[in-house]
Amino acid sequence: MEPRPDVGNKPRIDGRWHFYSGIMCSMIGIMHIDATDRLILALLEENARMPTAELARRAGLSRTTVQSRIERLERGGAIAGYAVVMGAAARDAIRAHVMITLAPRHVSSVEDALRRFPEIRELHAVSGQVDMIAVVGAQTTEAINDAIDRIGMLEGVDRTTSAIVLATRVMRQGPTTVATPRHRTR
Questions:
Q1: Which domain, by its residues, includes 150?
Q2: With contact defined as beta carbons under 8 Å apart, do 60 and 184 qualify?
Q3: Are 155 and 136 in contact (CB under 8 A)?
């Protein structure tokens, strides 16, 4: 490994290493996201179409600062794109979480089969007593039941347990630590 120069307080790039606020990151590795970046991300998550001037006003920053931070977040991969968040009229009427227990050595084949289910909105490999959790969405309970039955019939699936989502109390995307807005002093 290359020797590292001293870490300073100013951002600078030195060879393959990036030093920022005393944190060293590989140029192809982790990106430093500070409280201001988190605030900008939270505001964009609230409304990805918010004009830069409004973002700047709400963050207490200049427009150019906000624009350069957004560009840096995009280049660094913290912002992967901008998407439509579907409203209630376009979402599935019913969702279920299906916990799936697999027979040994069937993870790949079951995963491949589950990828072809149009009702599966998310598929997670998890630790614990089950191996996977599928989030299934449809317009009727009959369609949910049919999807769960088809999942259970797959070769390599030992057992399924399902839970219908009655209400979503919190739904978040983005950073786990969201900054609070700055209070401007006048």
A1: 94-164
A2: yes
A3: no
Whether the Cβ atoms of residue 114 and residue 134 lie closer than 8 Å to each other: yes
Question: Is there a single domain that holds both residue 64 and residue 119?
Answer: no
Mean pLDDT of 95-110: 96
Q: Which residues pair with 120 in a beta bridge?
A: 136
Number of domains in the chain: 2
CATH number for the domain harbouring residue 21: 1.10.10.10
Question: How many Cβ atoms from other residues are within 10 Å of residue 28's Cβ?
Answer: 7
Q: CA 164 to CA 66: how far, in whole Å?
A: 42
Phi, psi values for residue 100, rounded to 5°: -120, 125
Rounded distance between C-alpha atoms, residue 123 and residue 107, angstroms? 12
Contacts 24+ apart (CB under 8 A), 127-132: 129/101, 130/99, 130/100, 130/101, 130/161, 131/100, 131/101, 131/102, 131/107, 132/99, 132/100, 132/102
- For 69-96, what is each residue's pLDDT tens digit? 999 999 988 888 887 766 666 677 899 9
Sheet holding 12-14, edge to edge: 12-14, 17-20, 23-26
- Domain CATH number, residue 143: 3.30.70.920
In a domain, 7, yes or no: no
Same domain, 65 and 104: no
